[in-house]
Amino acid sequence: MVPLTENVFVYGTLLRGNINEGLLKEGRLVGRGIVHGLALFDVNPSYPGAVKAFGKKVRGEVFAVDAAMLAKLDRLEHNGLLYRREIMPVLLEGSGKKVEAWVYLWLGEVDPQGEVPLHRQPWQG
C-alpha cells in the first residue's frame, strides 16, 4: 500500500457528493476544515475558485493522498494555468487542530458579484 503523505484541501468539484469526488476514492478523509485568508468565487457555472483575501474564509474538506493522486489533481486543476497549488494552514472543524495542506488557488479574474458567502459553503455543484 502506498503511503498517503500529502494533505490536500478541496472546496469544489472534488468535495464528497460532487462530480469529481471519485478522484479521491483512494485517499483518506482527514476532516472538514476552514482556510483563513481566502475567498470563494463562482468562476464558472461548473466550478469555483479560491483567491487570497484578507479577513475571508473558505470551508472544505482535507484528504490525505499520495503523490500519484496529487499528480492527477494537478492535471484536473490545470496546475500553473487555471490554478496554482500552494501549501496553507487548515483549521480542522471539531478538533480545532491545524494541518498543512495543498490548496488550489484560482489564477484568473474574479467577479465580486460571484463571491460565495461562508454560509453557502462548502460549495455544491
Question: What does it look like?
Answer:
By secondary structure, the protein is mostly beta strands. The protein has a single domain (6-112), classed as Roll (Hypothetical upf0131 protein ytfp). It has 1 helix and 5 strands. The protein has one helix at 67-76, and strands spanning 6-10, 28-44, 47-65, 83-92, 98-106. Strands 1-3-2-4-5 form a 5-stranded mixed barrel. A hairpin with a 2-residue loop joins strand 2 (28-44) and strand 3 (47-65). The N and C termini lie far apart (32 Å). The model has no long low-confidence stretch (mean pLDDT 95).
Tally of distinct domains: 1
Mean pLDDT: 95
Rounded radius of gyration (Å): 13 Å
Question: Unreliable segments (pLDDT under 50, ≥5 consecutive)?
Answer: none
**CATH T-level topology:** Hypothetical upf0131 protein ytfp
Sheet having the most strands = 5 strands, mixed, barrel
Approximate strand percentage: over 45%
Q: Find the CATH superfamily.
A: Gamma-glutamyl cyclotransferase-like
Give me some keywords for this one:
mainly beta, Hypothetical upf0131 protein ytfp, five-stranded mixed β-barrel, 5 strands, 8% helix, globular
Short description:
This protein is mainly beta and 125 residues long. Helix content is 8%, strand content 48%.
Topology at a glance:
Blueprint: E1 6-10, E2 28-44, E3 47-65, H1 67-76, E4 83-92, E5 98-106
Parallel strand pairs: 1-5
Antiparallel strand pairs: 1-3, 2-3, 2-4, 4-5
